[in-house]
Design goal:
The complex is a heterotrimer. The two termini of chain A are about 35 Å apart. Chain A is globular, with a radius of gyration of 20 Å. By secondary structure, chain A is of the alpha+beta class. Chain A has 5 helices and 13 strands. Chain B is of the alpha+beta class. Helices cover about 25% and strands about 30% of the residues of chain B. Chain B is built from 6 helices and 13 strands. Chain B has helices at about 10, 80-100, 105-120, 165-175, 195-215, 235; strands at about 35-40, 40-50, 50-55, 55-60, 65-70, 70-80, 130-135, 140-145, 150-155, 155-160, 220-225, 245-250, 260-270. The mean pLDDT of chain B is about 90. Chain C is α+β, with helices and mostly antiparallel strands. The two termini of chain C are about 35 Å apart. The chains are: A alpha+beta, B alpha+beta, C alpha+beta. The interface of A and B includes residues 189 and 202 of A.
Chain lengths: ~270, ~270, ~260
């Protein structure tokens, strides 16, 4: 889903099979010389999925960070907890993600320290989401985007309900009971919506999926993504956020079936 | 022709293949449509609730119409991130105005302020089409429409957004009576005098029609009705007079409450 | 106050002929007027306690704390000018946060104390500023174990097994010495457990408090230990309550003996 790193010139490497270290960073035709701003994503994570269920919300993302089409880092975590009741699922540029983690962790640590003296409530998922939205929009307005699409999942302790929302590098925001970034928006979102609406109805006022049902839908969706998204890997985690807090699963894999491939011309051993 | 036997040097030196520039595009189009119609003693401001990007529906419920104070409602359409952030700024300016002047800002003043704010970003515009509706200080219903950089005028009605080209001609015909001839002997048509029930029907028909023919319009319809102080709301609150499927709620006064009343009418639209 | 009228006490950048900085000594006076603050290093953590004097009956219970968090694992209890204490806590948090940013690891209590003390010391060098009217106790548990330091207005700091500052610190210190000596004699060098220390700190603060002379006070206690998840946190309400009751009972007993 994320743009391929740009080749230094278009006649070189038409297939974008690997990214080039000599990418054009901040080159402009201005007389004032290069401007250090606008970037492009280099090491990227693909889809993140989010789904509300009866006792909270789940977020899933695989463990791959790609360098163009190279599966560069195959054991990274793209789910990041913030405090007791909030979790980010992050797609897009992984260095921007790491920067984001560092900034938010520092902020939450400061909030925690201050809470001892003035006993103010900790940041709610909604608070963190608003902060992220403002940050992403401010950075896009400086033409220096934070190159990510983020799902924020959480549990609102005051309203006693789950929270799920999206924000991306443009500062675009929205919320829905099922969400997906990137390729997931095309491949998984229809599956998530179908499963959600089958129980809750189109207005979402019926019963929600149970934890087991929600996890099954996410497992199925992650499998579809692994089959069809070339920038995915068959190793992913699911985070569950409920009133009890955040828990992130160990990495797991889908059972896949490739027998059909043997019969495909151009896939197996045949030469003709 | 010796002069032209060879192309000028500067021309031959131009590179035949320009390097592809990957420049960050800070805008997006999130589809949807908005519409407002002014009556003699009321104003109706409406928008659908679908937010999309390309062929993907991001969410089936995102707000595009916002109550600003007891006599003004603003509808935004275009790039959603700019829309929400613009409304946020407008609301902040209105609050500052109330602190400074101990009264809410009048409609025509809000309109002028919006022009200033939009033009203030003339060279990095808010990619948003705005329609402001409400009650003027003389008690009349009013609609102001804006382009993204602040050009504005007061009108009897305006449609904007993805389905503008579908809605506006319909409004021209039904509100401005374009291409209509009064029956011989009957009174001349005067725009802006239709009863509320007729206006509501026109709004609903506009959106159901746009939903049929435009892929970016649908899911839900929110219609805000602002009424002049002292006007009876019976035509809106009597369920028998209302088209089936419409749900009405009155929004309480935001400020001191000078008598104007705002209602929110909801209806579902097709989701395909 | 032999210094008064000599002119050597007007600027912190001027020594007196016998090598003293009177402004720094006056800062100590500001500390002596404050309610006592106690730090106690235990074998399994650190306890901080202060006697928060209430200058008005209108104050909200539990508000206006004198113990602040500098990082997850470090607390700061200060005695002296309250506003100076808040400023110093803020500075301490910035130092702790910047250490994490630079080294991706939590700062040790020793290093943080060193940086805070360097900051305080700078306020004893220039004529344009006044020293902090503070003695601050920094306590925490880091990778080197439970640690306790006290920083004075001059910028000097020492590590302690136990320390007290503020009004009645002398009495508090003799009580703390008894505890420490007992531990040394019995060969439990590490000292008490934090659980045991809660009662001791409460007892000492109640003992030091002069009901006749002093205003009313609230007992404020925090700890860093395994039970608090190795985080700087308030001592749980029930433990604090029972410690206070024991402290009051011990006082009564003491009076009957007299």
């Amino acid at each position: 889903m994320w743009k391929q790193p740009a080749p230094a010139n278009s006649s070189f490497n038409d297939y974008n099979t690997f990214p080039l270290p000599q990418t054009q960073r901040g080159q402009s035709s201005h007389a004032h010389g290069p401007v250090g701003h606008t970037q492009q994503p280099l090491v990227t994570g693909t889809s993140v999925l989010g789904l509300k269920f009866d006792k909270g919300v789940m977020i899933a993302a695989d463990n791959l960070a790609s360098y163009g089409s190279l599966a560069r880092f195959r054991d990274i975590q793209r789910l990041h907890p913030l405090g007791k009741h909030t979790l980010l699922g992050v797609a897009g540029d992984m260095s921007d993600f790491q920067w984001l983690k560092k900034e938010l962790d520092a902020l939450l640590r400061e909030e925690d320290a201050l809470a001892l003296s003035d006993s103010h409530p900790s940041l709610s998922p909604k608070n963190i989401y608003e902060l992220l939205s403002n940050l992403f929009y401010a950075r896009r307005s400086k033409m220096n985007p934070v190159w990510n699409a983020v799902l924020v999942g959480g549990w609102d302790k005051v309203k006693e309900e789950s929270f799920l929302a999206y924000v991306d590098l443009l500062g675009t925001t929205y919320t829905a009971p099922t969400l997906a970034t990137g390729f997931g928006a095309h491949l998984a979102q229809p599956l998530l919506r179908e499963a959600f609406e089958a129980k809750a109805g189109i207005n979402g006022d019926g019963p929600l999926l149970t934890q087991e049902e929600a996890e099954k839908v996410l497992d199925d969706s992650m499998k579809v993504l692994f089959y069809r998204d070339a920038r995915s890997i068959n190793k992913y985690q699911i985070a569950t956020i409920t009133a009890e807090g955040v828990s992130i699963s160990d990495s797991k894999s889908s059972d896949t079936y490739w027998k059909f491939a043997e019969g495909l011309r151009g896939y197996g051993a045949q030469t003709q | 022709m010796a002069l032209y036997s060879q192309p000028p040097m500067s021309y031959t030196q131009e590179p035949t293949t320009a390097p592809v520039e990957h420049r960050f595009n800070p805008y997006s189009d999130n589809g949807g449509s908005i519409l407002a119609i002014a009556g003699k003693d009321f104003s109706v401001i409406a928008g659908d609730t679908r937010q999309s990007e390309g062929y993907s529906i991001q969410t089936r419920y995102a707000r595009k119409v916002w109550q600003l104070n007891d006599k003004a409602v603003l509808a935004t359409n275009g790039f959603a991130a700019d829309g929400t952030n613009f409304v946020k700024r407008v609301k902040q300016r209105l609050e500052w105005y109330e602190h400074a002047h101990h009264k809410p800002m009048g409609l025509k003043s809000i309109a002028r302020m919006i022009q200033t704010m939009l033009y203030g970003k003339r060279f990095f515009p808010y990619y948003v089409y705005n329609i402001l509706g409400g009650i003027e200080e003389d008690g009349t219903g009013a609609v102001y429409s804006f382009d993204p950089v602040g050009s504005y005028e007061r009108e009897a009605c305006r449609g904007a957004g993805a389905a503008q080209s579908l809605i506006q001609p319909f409004l021209d015909n039904q509100i401005y009576f374009k291409n209509q001839q009064p029956e011989a002997g009957s009174e001349k048509f005067v725009p802006g005098n239709l009863p509320l029930s007729t206006v509501l029907s026109l709004v609903v028909d506009s959106f159901t029609s746009a939903t049929e023919r435009h892929i970016e319009v649908g899911d839900g319809l929110e219609i805000y009705v602002v009424m002049q102080k002292g006007r009876s709301a019976d035509d809106l609150l009597d369920e028998k007079k209302l088209a089936p499927g419409l749900k009405v709620e009155e929004l309480g006064a935001l400020g001191e409450g000078e008598g104007e009343r705002t209602f929110l009418v909801r209806q579902s639209l097709k989701r395909d | 106050m032999t210094s008064i009228g000599t002119g050597y006490d007007l600027s912190v950048s001027t020594y007196s002929p016998d090598g003293r900085l009177f402004q720094v000594e006056y800062a100590h006076k500001a500390v002596e007027a404050a309610g006592v603050a106690i730090g106690l290093r235990c074998k399994d953590g650190v306890i901080l306690g202060v006697e928060r004097l209430l200058h008005s009956k209108l104050l909200v219970k539990g508000a206006n704390r004198r113990i602040a968090s500098l990082d997850e694992h470090i607390g700061l209890a200060s005695a002296g000018l309250l506003a100076d204490g808040k400023h110093l806590a803020r500075r301490g948090r910035e130092e702790a946060s910047s250490f994490r940013e630079n080294y991706n690891s939590p700062v040790t209590v020793q290093i943080l104390s060193d940086r805070i003390s360097a900051y305080l010391q700078a306020y004893t060098c220039y004529g344009s500023v006044r020293p902090f009217g503070l003695s601050s106790i920094v306590g925490g548990v880091d990778k080197t174990g439970p640690k306790l330091f006290c920083i004075e207005p001059s910028g000097v700091y020492y590590g302690y097994r136990a320390v007290a500052v503020g009004k009645g610190k002398a009495l508090a210190k003799t009580e703390l010495e008894k505890i420490v000596n007992k531990n040394l004699e019995s060969g439990t060098e590490g000292g008490l457990t934090v659980r045991e220390a809660i009662d001791e700190v409460a007892r000492i603060i109640y003992l030091v408090h002069d009901d006749n002379k002093d205003k009313d006070f609230e007992l404020e206690m925090t700890w860093i230990c395994e039970e608090s998840g190795n985080k700087h946190a308030l001592v749980p309400e029930d433990l604090l309550k029972s410690a206070e009751e024991k402290a009051k009972a011990a006082l009564e007993e003491g009076m009957e003996e007299d």
